[in-house]
Amino acid sequence: MESLYLLIPMSVVLVFLIGVIFWWSVRSGQFDDLEGPGYKVVADDDAPPARPDGDEPADR
Description:
- With 60 residues, the protein is mainly α.
- The protein has a domain at 1-29.
- It has two helices and no strands.
- It is elongated, with a radius of gyration of 25 Å.
- This is Cbb3-type cytochrome oxidase assembly protein CcoS.
- Pfam families: FixS.
- The chain crosses the membrane at residues 6-26.
- Residues 40-60 are annotated as: Disordered.
């Protein structure tokens, strides 16, 4: 029974903390665009990588 005196307040604090973190993530725009990052991963990059010496690639 004594353990409930510790576990119930800890669970209430944990739920409150999870709620605050979720509220912050919604307000900061974390869930605004759910599909865009997935398309960015598979997007084809048409530009060839830059050379380390700064010169343009020969095939341009």
